[in-house]
Design a protein that fits this description.
This protein is mainly beta. The protein has 2 domains: 201 residues, no CATH class; 201 residues, 7 Propeller (Methylamine Dehydrogenase, Chain H). It is built from 5 helices and 37 strands. The strands form 8 sheets. Strands 3, 4, 5, 6, 7, 8, 9 and 10 form an 8-stranded antiparallel β-sheet that branches. Strands 12, 13, 14, 35, 36 and 37 form a 6-stranded antiparallel β-sheet that branches. It has a 4-stranded antiparallel β-sheet with strand order 15-16-17-18, with no helix packed on it. Strand 15 and strand 16 form a beta hairpin.
């Protein structure tokens, strides 16, 4: 099982580096007027300027009703495939070139365009139908602002397109998205329109027909009806160390639609959790996490660190660095990217990808000043952590492009280079690293392991997530050290019933 997971993890890492492109074409069909990418699908449009009416959507688990195919005018040009049919009038300027549609065994899409005088897309109706899991479909809805509970209960606004009631999402500037799903066939449908009020749009939407086959698919429960993760305490021996992981249940299970970007900071009995770019505060009693409140952030942040005087610091690429006391923002500075903060909160390292572009920033006299601080041995960076002894930079080496944890002193001199299993598997993607009383510890998100080394950098071994945390295939995202020397680890894991991905926290000790 462990070796299989390693192979799977390595495969995922390679695919991520290559940049996964789904079979569904690009992701934002209206942002690029030269070659729109793909997006959602759906329903019949009202007349120009008319707002969508509130229609009844199928309640959870119901199959949306498939209407009869509309009668297509004989003068229209018709595109037909296994998943949908659309009729359009070339006299209105509509075009559907051969490279403007894609059909496969699992779905298809089409880009109906009216070109402007320069030959670029002036108006677009994008139609898509794909066999996909419910989780992908729900994530798409969530990411476009649809209230999933309202959608499941039939109270989200809809319009009829292709004989189906489709959820309506107004994106502004005349852009409108439509979504629905044929549950029994396991097919999701999307329609995107760049200019809803254009006089040629209603006729196209009227002549869309969705077709589907398949009756045996069963979607998983909705997140609020699913079974939350139920963890326990488990131990695993690594070398002479016995690692113990205790599941820290939250007062309310935390569902996520983001696999990777989760972070945690532990300050006394307070735990700050950054998840889905949202910050929340919990109290911590070494056995559970109790929700206190959400803390609004002005921006999308994915890095969370302890600051000085019990404060926290959040940062992200292209966002200002913000210091927060849990009630209000204490400061905001432009300049740094992702920001790793020293334990005393007075300085930190700004990093993003290239190790040659790192900066050392210091807080002084109400200002944040930076100087170049490159890490000569490192090529690309996946993570930077600063503990009370070292700056630990995780990433690829310039000399061989392999993954390591590079251990630097505060002056930037390399002290150690921590690698993977000798004559075996290397490291995947390190998401957290720190020194310990007995050596070094790192979390390998890609290999789903906790890795240990001795103080001189000798590899000791690794604890597998299934054995230590009781998880199946989580992304181990981040960690922070508590006052008692234990580490709180945060990860995302798909529930056993596939109802949702859930954010999990474990207390790790024994290293």
């Amino acid at each position: 099982m462990c070796n299989l997971k390693k192979y799977l993890a390595l495969f995922v890492a390679v695919v991520m580096l290559l940049g996964v492109v789904g079979c569904n074409a690009p992701s934002d069909p209206v942002s690029d007027t030269t070659q729109p990418a793909e997006t959602p699908t759906q329903a019949e449009t009202p007349t120009q300027g008319e707002e969508p009416t509130q229609a009844e959507t199928p309640t959870q688990g119901e199959e949306p009703t498939q209407g009869e195919a509309p009668v297509v005018d004989a003068n229209l040009t018709v595109h037909e495939n296994t998943y949908f049919t659309v009729g359009y009038d070339e006299a209105d300027g509509w075009t559907l070139a051969e490279d403007d549609f894609y059909i496969s065994e699992t779905g298809g899409n089409a880009y109906l365009r009216i070109l402007d005088e320069d030959g670029y897309t002036g108006l677009l109706v994008f139609i898509e139908a794909y066999e996909e899991s419910a989780s992908y479909y729900r994530e798409e809805l969530y990411g476009n602002g649809v209230d999933l509970k309202a959608y499941a209960e039939g109270t989200w606004p809809t319009e009829e397109i292709g004989g189906l009631q489709m959820a309506v999402v107004d994106k502004g500037d005349g852009e409108r998205y439509f979504y629905t799903r044929n549950v029994e066939a396991g097919i999701s449908y999307t329609v995107n329109v760049t200019d809803w009020e254009h006089t040629s749009v209603p006729a196209v939407l009227k002549n869309i027909t969705f077709t589907a086959s398949g009756t045996d698919n069963i979607d998983p429960p909705w997140p609020w009806e699913g079974v939350p993760f139920a963890g326990a305490t488990a131990s695993q021996t690594v070398g002479t160390h016995t690692l113990t992981a205790e599941f820290m249940p939250m007062s309310e299970p935390k569902v996520t639609y983001e696999t990777f970007n989760h972070d945690i900071a532990v300050i006394g009995d307070r735990v700050y959790l950054l998840s889905d770019y949202a910050l929340s505060l919990y109290t911590y009693d070494s056995a559970a996490l109790s929700f206190v409140k959400d803390i609004p952030l002005d921006g999308e942040y994915d890095v969370l660190e302890q600051g000085a005087d019990g404060n926290i610091i959040v940062s992200s690429f292209m966002e200002p660095v913000i210091g927060h006391d849990g009630e209000t923002a204490q400061f905001s500075y432009e300049g740094p990217d992702k920001f790793a903060v020293a334990p005393d909160g007075t300085w930190g390292i700004s990093w993003f990808f290239s190790a040659d572009e790192c900066q050392l920033y210091s807080f002084s006299d109400g200002a944040l000043t930076g100087t170049p601080f490159p890490f000569e041995e490192v090529d690309s960076i996946s993570q930077v952590n600063i503990d009370d002894q070292y700056i630990l930079v995780s990433g690829s080496a310039k000399e061989d492009d392999e993954q390591y944890v590079f251990v630097y002193d505060y002056s930037g001199e390399l002290q150690l280079k921590l690698g993977g299993e000798p004559d075996g598997y290397g490291l995947g993607s390190i998401t957290y690293a720190t020194s310990t009383p007995n050596g070094f510890l790192a979390l390998d998100g890609n290999m789903r392991e906790v890795v240990l080394w001795t103080a001189d950098g000798t590899w000791i071994g690794a604890a597998d997530d299934a054995d230590l945390f009781g998880t199946n295939y989580p992304w181990i995202a981040a960690a922070d050290m508590a006052d008692d020397g234990s580490i709180l680890v945060v990860m995302s894991e798909t529930r056993a019933d596939d109802s949702a991905d859930e954010v999990l926290v474990f207390r790790l000790s024994g290293f």
